[in-house]
Amino acid sequence: MGHGQTISVIDDDGEVRASLQNFLRSAGMAVRSFAGAREFLDDTGPSDCVITDLHMPDMDGLALLDALAARGATPPVIVMTAFPTEAARARAEAFGVVEFLTKPVDPDVLFEAIEAALRKI
Q1: CA distances from 97 to 34, 41, 80 (A)
Q2: In the prediction, which pLDDT does 119 show?
Q3: What tens digit of pLDDT does each residue of 55-73 get?
């Protein structure tokens, strides 16, 4: 899974970013990480799947989804949050996210979500 495909991780928490990056790399995936949504949007590198935090300063995960939709080329997205609400879940699902996960994320559930995301490309 994930060989030759790039996963982008966006989270303002450096420990979460590093943990996800190490975890995904240990599974043989190419991983790029970003401290925020704007940093990701300004980057021109490949992203076959995006894993983003919902609550971030400056631009949250829903605004990121909106910005990606406005660009017209939306990679599959997995949203994570420690503070899920039904309203946020509904908005994320309206954008077509692959999965809306609650932190701390179960590794097996995350792998299943990534597999589902990569099947969409």
Answers
A1: 19, 17, 11
A2: 92
A3: 999 999 999 999 999 998 7
